[in-house]
Amino acid sequence: MSKPLKQIHLAAHFPGVNNTTVWSDPEAGSHIEFSSFAHFAKTAERAKFDFLFLAEGLRLREQGGKIYDLDVVGRPDTFTILAALAAVTEHLGLTGTINSTFNEPYEVARQFASLDHLSGGRSAWNVVTSWDAFTGENFRRGGFLPQQERYSRAKEFLATTQELFDSWQGDEILADQASGVFLRDAKAGSFVHTGQHFDIHGQFNVPRSPQGRPVIFQAGDSDEGREFAASSADAIFSRYATLKEGQAFYTDVKNRLAKYGRRQDQLLILPAASFALADTDAEAEELARTVRRQQVSGATALKHLEFVWNRDLSRYDPEGPLPDIDPDVSDNHISKGRAQVRMYRDPLATAREWRELAEANKWSIRDLVINTGNRQNFIGSPETIARTINEYVQADASDGFILVPHITPTGLDTFADKVVPLLQEQGVFRTDYEGPTLRHHLGLAHPDEARGEQRAAS
Amino acid sequence: MSPSSLHLAVALDGTGWHPASWREPVARPRELFTAGYWADLVVEAEHGQLDFVTIEDGLGPQSSHFLDPDERTDQVRGRLDAVLIASRIAPLTRHIGLVPTAVVTHTEPFHLSKAIATLDYVSTGRAGVRVQITARPNEAAHFGRRTIPAIEAYDSPRTQDLVTDLLDEAADWVEAVRRLWDSWEDDAEIRDAATGRFIDRDKLHYIDFEGRHFSVKGPSITPRPPQGQPLVTALGHQTVPYRLIARQADVGYITPHDTDQARAIVTEIRDEQSAAGREGEPLHIFGDLVVFLDEDPAAAAARRDRLDTLAGEPFTSDARVFTGTPAQLADLLVEFQATGLTGFRLRPAVLGHDLPAITRGLVPELQRRNAFRTAYEADTLRGLLGLARPANRYAAASA
């Protein structure tokens, strides 16, 4: 008997503060005005997507000691936008990236529990960590956290917020006007947490929210990040959207679940995926090339090369050959506030490889950056993209995708209108929401049910 | 608005300011943690063309004690984050200002500055913030970052030292937040395709704030909000907070119990304002009043008595408590206005009853006296309060 078809999960990443987002296109709108967020969210909900995803950055990026000015710069506050989006949508999940380093558990727990109440159970938290003193300069504690402790803090931060969410059971508020009993239990919300990073106690002041706790996302890719996800997350925002890499990541992470007593369906793998969609495959290929050139201007190409060379390359011609000098391998990096630079672990080797590639293909600096950088994950007609997405999901390269359009706020419209109906026809994507909460959309049990299951099993 | 007009805000807290308010049939206490409850209240306030609503908040359970938890089960306990309530309501309203409370004692000015800026974007120019300190040791323990000593008496010298220290921190907090709001010039986003530059980075500014409790480098991650500077408001009962109001706020709330007190406090704040070199700048001083409103004064008094009986003790407040008809309240507000108050923040004893009494009873009475607007005359909260959009401090410095 063949395996039953997996249902695909789809989400929409609001175009971000990076060069995937094409701001120079005449169609590109505001990245700040609420009308852009509302349009984007309503499109995602019209298409019955699982959720909308917001990234976060707590310090404007710098390169060579100056604020980086070539990408979209600036974004609103995550919680505040998600709360407002709850007013203009009814079902769409609302996922926010919130840093565990430059926040405190009591406050973050209040904000997520409040968002969950105000959205009727649609909140999710992408837990990220950072340690850099650069970002810390905007916060009370500065750069207080050694890099090797960031996951230990993140884990304890998440565990502490879970204790706060669980400090209310959900049946404490009686609000009996006749008898005058508002609270069943004067100790509702009581908590004590004593740990390496947090030593706090008292009473949490937000009653249990519809989902019990927000859905937890994790995005880190290191071994520690994967363990963190396997132990504590409901979903992973991954970066492996190709078939082979996706399958490898999927297998690796899902195999880690058993040791935490968790089933394979209790952790969803959702890679970020960009796309170039047109009426025909040929037109889509052409669109993909055009968009790549929009994403990588000459100025952007030079700045990108600086991530590897770690030197000021502004005197080079982006349409000319690669620099013949070698990268500066000192610790003090030219780029600040960007996770991407850590991908190049051996800059000398990368530089050598790129020079060889450029010579072999007669590529300029800009050609090289366009061709070695991230090409769109899905390129093609609606039929091609729908078929590919379904193949990848059925082949366990993922459980679905978090789509990253390159145009704000209309970049999702055509996907919603053309690709989603094809997936629905194939019976692999919902035609309507089946429940009110994000846990329903993702097929995740309510924490109370999950606890019940564990008790029954033990 | 005519020059004789006064401004009106309503303070939203739970089911109302009387601790037994939740037991009234109109109170909807089981809906306190839903968006619909708050939406209905703010839509009602907007129906009355009020200037703004404030939303109370706190970093711990409500308590009938000044500084400690009380473990009572007969009053409303638990609340949602006020900034998020305001943001959830913003798309459902068009004119009314939204002023959530932010507790500044344990929180990050960087986070709150972008949250209020974002509220200003979401509401297209109707955001403000009411800054509040907390001296509660139990709330400090929720953060575990510092110990706040338990203090015995409200007026002891130790208490005064602590409150002064917390208010100094609040002053730093407001300064950092205001700088962050200005850290992008209005025209910083250029989208210059020719040079590939999205922003003109010379129009972004480090704020380099350094205070005793925190430092903030900047710039904000959020561009300058629509109003430039969203409204900053604070409640004060004594000289130290009056100074914060005089130096840094757009609206101060005070609690005079009679017109003589009102006159004295207004004078004190205006003197501080002059001393701070702000005499030319508009600063609103609102009187806070708790209100029990009924068409028959005896009914209002009886309702108050009934609630006091349910609560098991007579209601007391830092603010003057008014019990009577909307017409009597209108007369009182006009009388208080003559002391130099420019508006009032009314705290409805029972929101489900006294808020509609304000919007449908008091407002028409004031309009009849030519003392309140008959239509919203501006698109922003600053506009409603007659406050110009301020110049950017950094643009002025570089010009």
TrEMBL record, chain A:
Record region (Disordered):
439-458
Q: Which residues form the Luciferase-like domain?
A: 24-395
List compositional bias (Basic and acidic residues) regions by residue number.
446-458
Organism's domain of life?
Bacteria
Name the residues that bind FMN.
T97, Y151, S222
Q: Which Gene3D superfamilies match?
A: Luciferase-like domain (3.20.20.30)
Keyword field: Flavoprotein, FMN, Monooxygenase, Oxidoreductase
**One of this protein's Pfam families, by short name?**
Bac_luciferase
Does the record carry Flavoprotein as a key word? yes
- Cite the GO molecular-function annotations of the record: monooxygenase activity; oxidoreductase activity, acting on paired donors, with incorporation or reduction of molecular oxygen
- Recorded family membership: Belongs to the NtaA/SnaA/DszA monooxygenase family.
Q: Per its record, how is this protein called by name?
A: F420-dependent methylene-tetrahydromethanopterin reductase
From TrEMBL, chain B:
Q: Which InterPro entries match?
A: Diverse_substr_monoxygenases, Luciferase-like_dom, Luciferase-like_sf, NTA_MOA
Q: Does the keyword Cell membrane apply?
A: no
Q: Which GO terms describe its molecular function?
A: monooxygenase activity; oxidoreductase activity, acting on paired donors, with incorporation or reduction of molecular oxygen
| Domain Luciferase-like residue range list | 33-304
* Keywords (A to Z) from UniProt: Flavoprotein, FMN, Monooxygenase, Oxidoreductase
Q: Which residues bind FMN?
A: D57, T101
Q: Which domain of life is it from?
A: Bacteria
Query: Record's family?
Result: Belongs to the NtaA/SnaA/DszA monooxygenase family.
Under which name does UniProt file this protein?
FMNH2-dependent monooxygenase
Taxonomic source organism: Streptomyces griseorubiginosus
